[in-house]
Amino acid sequence: MTTQEKLRVVYDCNVLLVAAAKEKSTSAACLWLARSGYVRLFLSKDVLEEVTDVLNRPKIRAAFETLTDELVNSFLEQLREVGEFVRVVPKRFTYSRDKDDEQYVNLAGAVDAHYLVSRDKDLLSLNTGYSDECKQFRQRFRPLKVIEPLDLLRQIAQARNITVAELRAEHERETKS
């Protein structure tokens, strides 16, 4: 990757849910990275459908009182504006451990993403697991890594020669204005 090339990323549904529900969260800071042009965020029809479904579930709304209709609609609109939409995502990977995670791996593979950002243990295990599926993931999608949101912030902070705290402070300043 050249110094001018932006990191290509895919965020899973949980990262996007937390970003919508908690504006000061690490996940929200990751979305801010895309809004601010530090990373290129990729989305697909399947990802948008799942995020829309999850953000509108009564159980999720009860758990996150900040998720009003207005906030969810605004968040989804912002996501569509910030993300780069991929129309065709070939199915190159199947994951029996969690079929719902396949779409994120396949999207990341389709765009040659540097990172798939997630807190999901099934996805994170792809980096180090011993199953045939984990080994296939590492062989087929090299150099793609599944990392947690904080790790993405660390990558960007390091590239900008600042601390994660400074990066988060920048996010909070811009979010307030």
Describe what this molecule looks like in 3D.
35% of the residues are buried. The protein has one domain: Rossmann fold (3-Layer(aba) Sandwich), CATH 3.40.50.1010. Helix 1 crosses helix 3 and helix 9 packs across helix 10. The model has no long low-confidence stretch (mean pLDDT 93). It is an alpha/beta fold and 177 residues long. It has a five-stranded parallel beta sheet with strand order 3-2-1-4-5, with helices on both faces. It is built from ten helices and five strands.
Provide the number of structural domains: 1
**Which descriptor suits the 3D outline?**
globular
CATH topology title? Rossmann fold
Oligomer type:
single chain
Biggest sheet, in brief?
5 strands, parallel
What share of residues is helical? 40-55%
Q: What is the mean pLDDT?
A: 93
Q: Uncertain regions: pLDDT < 50 for 5+ in a row?
A: none
CATH homologous superfamily heading = 5'-nuclease
| Percent of residues in beta strands | 5-15%
Main sheet strand line-up: 3-2-1-4-5
For the CA atoms, what is the radius of gyration?
16 Å
Named at the architecture level, the CATH assignment is 3-Layer(aba) Sandwich
Name the features.
globular; Rossmann fold; alpha/beta; 55% helix; 5-stranded parallel sheet; 177 residues
Describe, in short, the structure shown.
With 177 residues, the protein is of the alpha/beta class. The protein has helices at residues 13-21, 26-35, 45-55, 58-63, 69-82, 102-110, 121-124, 132-140, 149-160, 164-176; strands at residues 7-11, 39-44, 84-86, 115-117, 145-147.
